[in-house]
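step: validate -> pass
step: tokenize input -> pass
step: predict -> running
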Amino acid sequence: MKKKLKFFSYLYPVRVQIFESEVSGCLEIFWENGKKVLNGPHSNYSFGRLHQVFASGFRHFKPYWEEIHEVLILGYGGGSISELLKKQRGFNGNITAVELDPVIREIAETHFPEALAGVELHIQDASRFLESTARGYDLIVVDLFIDDQVPAQFGQEAFIKSLQTHLNRGGMLIHNFMFVQLQERQRVMDLYRENFERVDFMELFGSNTLVWACKG
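step: predict -> pass
step: emit ->
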């Protein structure tokens, strides 16, 4: 059956399963172009377009993978980012991840177990997780969306300051946004420049903006 679904997915998306979540709404597993993906009501959550966004970001910003020992993923989803990390040449670090939605954890365990293997996954609000730990990280990847919207608090100064506090000196941060207005992008970029020594961004697919920041 799996081989048939994979074959037909090159012709058209094949729905595998539907989940209802109080946090994220309707979540669906599809086979698309030979691989499983996780989609929300209006956006890809894992292994589709989102996978391409972070793959492009890693190529562009070029982390020194040998020097990254501790990684924090805020917004785990199905595990696109953890899978990408594990494939980076020279990376052998620990991955800690935070995900608000317990239904997404169930999906990750059921449909994407390889990406989840070895990941320390916390089901918790991202801000509260940061408040609860004193650990520092060499790379922080932020992908905090409810469907296609970033909750407002994750673009505010208090949250950005908290990210800066938990980033080790010399560490790198990559934060995914979908800005509707240029003024909002400028506001967020200004906040990052006020809190980090080096800041840059890249736009992808006409919808996503990856903000890059480095500490020290």
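step: describe -> Helices lie at 2-8, 49-61, 80-86, 102-111, 113-116, 126-132, 157-166, 182-195.
step: cleanup -> pass
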